[in-house]
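Summary of Year 1 activities. Much of the first year was spent building the evaluation harness for sequence design. The harness presents a backbone, in tokenized form, and records the residue chosen at every position. We chose the following record to illustrate the format because it has been used consistently in internal testing since the harness was completed.
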């Protein structure tokens, strides 16, 4: 059984205080703030008090406003001060959908996978398969062609990420990726989605199991997911344990002024 407090403290130390950025981004430590700049800008960790929170939030907001950049401030359920989300809202940040950070202990027995007949899970290794992943992603989440292809085309040979496609009777039905930051205890599941016409057939579960098997093979201790309302009950049935809540607060750049 996962010791939630210990695992969450380890997650904070490894994944929030010392994150490994995606290519093209950099990590900056500014006082008690850890932010990722470039690509998907994010304030990933903060250690604030009631005395300094408003000043620090305003400073970070102005930094990204001055850069004309969108940023997400990721708030976890145990972050302080207690009114941090109110302070963010007062500064103009807008809440995204709430999620739950869940973890699976890979050092115990592997995830079971009672595979649906006709289902095949493949790791994306070439551009043709990448386009299949795109089809499945767009069916699940809506159009994102330019962003998706640009993001993953150059990472097909990257050992820190693995993109998977689930095929049902030969048709791309679902996709999801596994992020494997080097030197960390945690691998992460991201972007998992199933086309609506293929849902409720156990495909998402099998896609999770395939990625968990690779993370276990690579020696990771834990597998984490920021689980939305739809995936949370499925993941809990598979043995994932909730650690804390999480929610992104988004600040959009101000509109450009016409010359």
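For this record, the design step produced the sequence shown next.
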């Amino acid at each position: 059984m996962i010791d939630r407090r210990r695992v969450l403290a380890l997650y904070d130390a490894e994944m929030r205080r010392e994150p490994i950025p995606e290519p093209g981004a950099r990590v900056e430590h500014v006082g008690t703030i850890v932010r990722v700049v470039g690509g998907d800008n994010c304030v990933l960790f903060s250690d604030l008090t009631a005395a300094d929170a408003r000043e620090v939030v305003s400073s970070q907001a102005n930094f990204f406003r001055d850069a004309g950049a969108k940023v997400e401030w990721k708030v976890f359920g145990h972050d302080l001060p207690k009114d941090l989300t109110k302070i963010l809202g007062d500064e103009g940040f807008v809440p995204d959908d709430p999620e739950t950070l869940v973890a699976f202990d890979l050092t115990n027995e592997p995830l079971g996978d009672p595979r649906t007949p006709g289902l095949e899970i493949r790791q994306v290794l070439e551009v043709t398969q990448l386009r299949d992943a795109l089809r499945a992603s767009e069916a699940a989440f809506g159009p994102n062609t330019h962003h998706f292809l640009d993001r993953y085309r150059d990472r097909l040979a990257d050992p820190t990420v693995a993109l998977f496609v689930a095929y049902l009777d030969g048709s791309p039905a679902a996709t999801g990726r596994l992020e494997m930051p080097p030197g960390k205890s945690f691998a992460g599941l991201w972007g998992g989605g199933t086309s609506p016409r293929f849902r409720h057939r156990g495909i998402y579960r099998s896609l999770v199991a395939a990625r968990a098997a690779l993370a276990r093979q690579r020696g990771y201790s834990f597998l984490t997911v920021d689980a939305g309302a739809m995936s949370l009950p499925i993941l809990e049935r598979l043995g994932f344990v909730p650690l804390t809540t999480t929610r992104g607060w988004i600040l959009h750049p101000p509109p450009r002024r016409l010359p």
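The chain has a mean pLDDT of 93. Quantitative recovery figures across the full test set are reported in Table 2.
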